[in-house]
Amino acid sequence: MLPYNSLLFICAFLRLVLFTEKRSFSFRLRRSIGDGGSTNSRNSNNNSSTCTNNNSLLSPVTSAKLEVPNSSASVSRRSSIYKKPDKDDSGIIHIVPDIELPLMTFSDQYDVEKTLAEGCFARILLAHHRPTNTSVVLKAVHAEMATLKDFQKEFHLNYQLSHHRNILSAYNVAFQTKDYYVFAMEHAPYGDLAANLGPHGLHESACKTISEQLSSALGFMHSKNLVHRDLKLENVLVFTPDFSRVKLCDFGTTTKKSLLVHKVKHTWTSCVPPEVLEIVKNERFLCMPTSDSWQFGILLFNILTGSPPWNMADWVKDTQYLNFMKYEQRKTTKIPDGFRRFSPRLMRCFRKYLTHDPEDRCKVTEVIKYMKDRWVECRIATSKSAMLISPNPDQDSCIYLNKREGRLSADENKLKLKRMMSSYG
User: Fold this and answer.
1) 230 catalytic per annotation
2) What are residue 97's phi and psi, to 5 degrees?
3) Which residue is catalytic, options 88, 98, 179, 230?
4) Would the pTM of this model clear 0.85, i.e. be above it?
5) CA 119 to each of CA 145, 153, 237, 239: distance values in angstroms, whole numbers, following the listed order
């Protein structure tokens, strides 16, 4: 015979078990009745979208129709064509499909009008697409200088990034000739930024417009775990004369973040970050977004002044970089010669972009915080120490008055005053 307290405990436990089972059964019943058709409909939608997008992205188009990717387009990861991406990947952009390139000649569908640019690896051709009566740009990569895999990677990345408004659009057109791998892009009517840059740089408002657009494009790439690695004036294309629309181009060296890479060949040494410049030949290093931040700072200085701040970021060989490095590390309060025209706020911005240590470098979108600040100031030098005056909002350059001329003008005023007083007795 069990004690009375034990019987009460057993009864309470049985009631709790029955109550829990009843609630679990009713929940499963409601779920099976209420959500019966939603699972099937979702599966059918996913399957239909997968088929549609696979056909539009993977089939090489050489017909009359030129296509640009839609921002809402996506490909299901369950597609058998793609491998399963890693957890840190951003969709399918890191997985380059094997694209079959049909063999043809330029004259089959295009009338090549002129050569816009030519480098070691590729030719940029302005052509007329006869079936659509459209002007396009053809990037013809030398087959001897690049592998098919490298070409497929550049075309894939450019096409997948095209839906950003400040990244050059690539059409879904790719083919090969006897000597080239070719894909089609949109035409920039005003050329690259180097052709539009004067000897003393651009106006402050134009520089702000350009930097805001480029930081948006690079920030978008960094959100996809991609690093451009070759940001320079020649890789920024201009679409309007007031620079309200510029686009980033050339993704031949673009690499996934944290991969081991070699140095970029055939680029300006002034754009190379110091940590990359110190790498010996054939040595590999980790590709990080901070290199884009450095190159963005160099480009920002370049469009403001018309020239780079130094020849190379080597404090042993380049005294200009050594002076900035001392200022950036607060070892001196003397502002380097090339930076004296800039406001304290912009100097703070340059310190963040061009710091020697890549771990202390800011994100490429940091410049947005300085858009409402004055960047360039005017200084009148009446002595060795310049006196700061309130800048004219329509004036962008620094004004310096000669000390001797100022003294002569004061003497002339005294002479006029003496004459006037003598005339009145």
Assistant:
1) yes
2) -75, 155
3) 230
4) no
5) 11, 19, 16, 22
